Amino acid sequence: MLYLLILIIGGIASYFGPWWIIAPVALALCWWKAKTPKEAFWISAFATFCLWIGYATFLNATADVNLIDKIAEMLSGGVGLLSKIPKIVLVFTIMTIIATSIGGFAGMSGVQMRRYFK
Amino acid sequence: MRFIKHFWSYLVMVGLIFLLHQPIGMLPPLGRLFSPFEGFLQNSNTKNSLSDENLDLSGVKEEVKIIYDDNQVPHIFANNEDDLYFAQGYVMAKDRIWQMEFYTMVAAGRLTEIVGERALEYDRYNRRLGMARAAAKIAENLKNDPVSNRILDSYAAGVNSYITQIDYKNLPVEYKILGYKPTEWTPYKTILMLMNMRSTLNGGSDDFRITNVVDQYGFDTVKDLFTDYPAEESPIIPAGTPWNFSPLPVKTPSKIMASKNDDKLIVKIPSPAPEIGSNNWAVGGAKSATGLPILSNDPHLGLTLPSIWYQMQLSCPTVNVYGVALPGCPGIVIGYNKDIAWGVTNVGSDVMDFYKIRFNNKEKTHYMYDNKWKPTTKYTEEFRLKSGLVIKDTLIYTHHGPVVYNESKETNFNKNAPAGHAMRWVALETSGSDLMIFYYLNRAKNYDDYRKALTFYTAPAQNFIFASNQNDIAITPNGKLPLKWKNQGKYILDGSMPEHDWQGWIPAEQNPTVKNPPHGFVSSANQFSTDPTYPYYLGWRFAAPNRAVRINERLAAMRNANADSLRSILNDNFNVAARRILPTLIPILETSNDASIAPARDIIKKWNLMNNPDAVGATIYERWVKELENWIWNDEFPTEQFMLHPTEDRTFEMLKKEATAKWFDNKNTKDKIETMNDMVVGSFKATLDSLTKYNGPLKPETWAWGTVKNTSIGHLGKIPGFSRTGIMNGGGRGIVNATTESTGPSWRMVVELDKEWPRGYGLYPGGQSGNVGSKYYDNMVDKWAAGKLDTLVFMKNKDEKSVRLTRTMTIKPKKIKY
């Protein structure tokens, strides 16, 4: 349930709001629904991950040009260790790290802050 | 403690968002950039991105229709000129705003603000050239020029109309990566863009390098090796064209350069770039199948993505023109209308000179001029780094112009100008309005209109070629050309002598020109404007004659020409230089019985002199002739000590006629006198060694010219994944198809004039969109590499139907609500 709420409300908010809007959404929903900080972290992280990677996959699939490859080349410069990693893996890994950490800590802080005030 | 226990995760989250929201050092703002909701993925174009649009914008007076064709070229139909240039600014910004701004930041020396400290020396150099100050003055002057002012304002309003409504999601991805936003467009920024062209085309000088040669070897050697006119040439204005004017008198002083220097001048001004040039030509009706002229133009510039050019049609009741525009500049720069077609190539005359300045003290408050101390003017330049840090620099001006470097420092960009050398540069001329030449050419109907348009132009001087459907063809090296005594500015001048100042300007109507020459064509390829009978001095060295020789040979032989015959010249890969020198070099190679060079020697002997993509002979020749040149000259004239080498023309003459010249000896070998044959054979071996080292043993695939040359089109901001590399094509330096490693034809156009309606063909190596996420970012590249041209859509009016028209953007005046 919490997962779905973060996914749907977070998705709508992200579509219109700034990129970090998922954080206050996860925070608020976890304040309301989550039981433990650990649960809040993982559910929020997973929901944010699904949202970002899901939307990114959709955008990439419908795009005329593969921008993910170009951004990966920008990061690796086409040489060295980073260029050995498949391009989409490199970009999705970065997205995953950002999405899970922002979402996870936001959800976790919702529960922790609720406990502080109660 | 309890607070931390409950709030640490919150603080971590806020900290992460803060860090990921902005660029840190070289790192882009990762969170924002990688978020699929706001970041780079939002720049992906889909099939639905290109559909009809209706916009209500304040700024237009009446409805404007912009019809896009299948190559995403906008055809703008407005009811008045203000709306026309507003719409031009709007659509240009929509496709190219990042590029437009980037060029202005380069010319203004403000790149540090967007890319950080690594651009500091480059910025310092551009500031010291004084382009921003001159641009500001020009923009100020143009406020008093009603037509220029109106166009510039309308254009800027259009750009700003786009900028104000763009949200982060839709920002070009480069802004997202570098973490900044577009700022307000102004007429000053348009002038900065034009400054960039002045700098690219006129911003080089070898004055320091040749002065070093004089200091070491004396004038006799320089007269012998650095001649004022090449042995082989085919000038733009055909020899024998009469000069129907009485020239202004110019007096040569007895002292023609600044006094000798004790040390080598460590100069940091780049040499004029030989690959930055262009071709244009027009054949008259007598040579064409239709009986009317055909015109062709291909400006050669550094190849970049987004492309330097943008195709468009501009139409309103006073004008209907098709061609290419420069990002950030109103009007069409190269193009055609119903009656005429025109194009440009760079003149390359000597318009950047240096004056040795004697200052009175360390503070440099005064300098010696005409036996008096004359005060300098000082400006403080501030460089804002991305980090917020501000670095200051003092710039000193004399009446000649800016002192480019006060002192030699290792970090000085380009390692160029030493203490006390002021620069006189045509690019800093603030009179006139370059835009007006294009304004009038866009509307020109005949030869007289063309001649009138030419009078408005300042710099960079261009060979303006012209053809009309009244069967006139013409070419004019045009722009403000300084009036100089012979060889003035070939060497460093003496800044204290009034006789060393530029003497004024060659009267515009006395610029060389030719109309309908008897041989039936006009052409230019950056070679000498005229033969030595022209009464004024323009410069001692122009681009090598090779392209011009080939173009003129082909045009002379041409009968019943059509657009395709001109296209075949655009793609001509014949190597004129090789034809000139190989008959001398090959017999020398045959004197060697070194078996290791035999396979390569056989290839070059059998080579058909075409720089085709699969030609191994072209690879060997191109690398060898460079190596040979270095072997001959770099011992006496080391480039690393800022010495200039003689031209290829002079080198070839020496190889052909002066086999025993002392310059063949390598003076770095103490106990041996090398001969010409030693140089030729030795450099051939060295070339093969180096080719083998980088490309493996001789094989047709790996040594193919296209592979070794590896033409690349780099991203303007040098973002690796946004570039195109490994483009297989032929051509090269000095070839009519002037595609080198990183420069080449940046727009190719052929126009068949017609009494009814002209037929235009063209393309450039890129695409209309500046968005790397659009397939129209580089869609013309492969076709360009293959030497093909698109048929251009030049509409008679907005109601014309064509299957190639894909979508319409309608701009209506925004209704003001009371």
Rg of chain A is 16 Å
Stretches of chain B where pLDDT falls below 50 for ≥5 residues? 408-419
Number of helical stretches of at least 4 residues of chain A = 5
Low-confidence stretches of chain A: none
Number of strands of chain A: 0
- Sheet-strand content of chain B, in percent, reads 15-25%
**Main β-sheet of chain B, in a few words?**
11 strands, mixed
Q: In what order do the strands lie side by side in the largest sheet of chain B?
A: 1-28-2-3-7-8-9-10-17-18-20
Written account of the structure:
- The complex is a heterodimer of chains A (118) and B (818).
- Chain A has one domain.
- Chain A has 5 helices and no strands.
- Chain A has helices at residues 2-16, 22-33, 37-62, 67-76, 87-117.
- The mean pLDDT of chain A is 92.
- In chain B, the strands form 6 sheets. In chain B, strands 1-28-2-3-7-8-9-10-17-18-20 form an 11-stranded mixed beta sheet, covered by helices on one side. In chain B, strands 4, 5, 21, 24, 25, 26 and 27 form a 7-stranded antiparallel beta sheet that branches.
- The N and C termini of chain B lie far apart (59 Å).
- The radius of gyration of chain B is 28 Å and the shape is globular.
- With 818 residues, chain B is α+β, with helices and mostly antiparallel strands.
- The longest helix of chain B is centred in the N-terminal third of the chain and has 27 residues, at 81-107.
- The chains are: A mainly alpha (118), B alpha+beta (818).
- Chains A and B meet through α3, α4 and α5 of A and α1 and α2 of B.
Task: Give a quick rundown of the structure.
The complex is a heterodimer of chains A (118) and B (818). By secondary structure, chain A is an all-alpha fold.
State the main characteristics:
heterodimer; A: 118 residues; mainly alpha; 5 helices; 0% strand; B: 818 residues; alpha+beta; 11-stranded mixed β-sheet; 7-stranded antiparallel β-sheet; 21 helices
SSE order and pairing:
The complex is a heterodimer of chains A (118) and B (818).
Chain A: H1 2-16, H2 22-33, H3 37-62, H4 67-76, H5 87-117
Chain B: H1 2-20, H2 30-34, E1 53-57, E2 64-69, E3 74-77, H3 81-107, H4 112-115, H5 120-129, H6 131-142, H7 146-165, H8 173-178, H9 187-202, H10 207-225, E4 278-283, E5 294-302, E6 304-305, E7 310-316, E8 319-325, E9 334-337, E10 340-346, E11 352-356, E12 366-369, E13 372-375, E14 377-384, E15 390-397, E16 421-425, H11 434-443, H12 447-454, E17 462-468, E18 473-478, E19 493-494, E20 514-515, E21 521-524, H13 546-557, H14 563-570, H15 576-590, H16 598-606, H17 616-633, H18 648-657, H19 676-695, H20 705-709, E22 711-715, E23 724-727, E24 743-745, E25 748-752, E26 759-763, H21 781-785, E27 790-791, E28 805-813
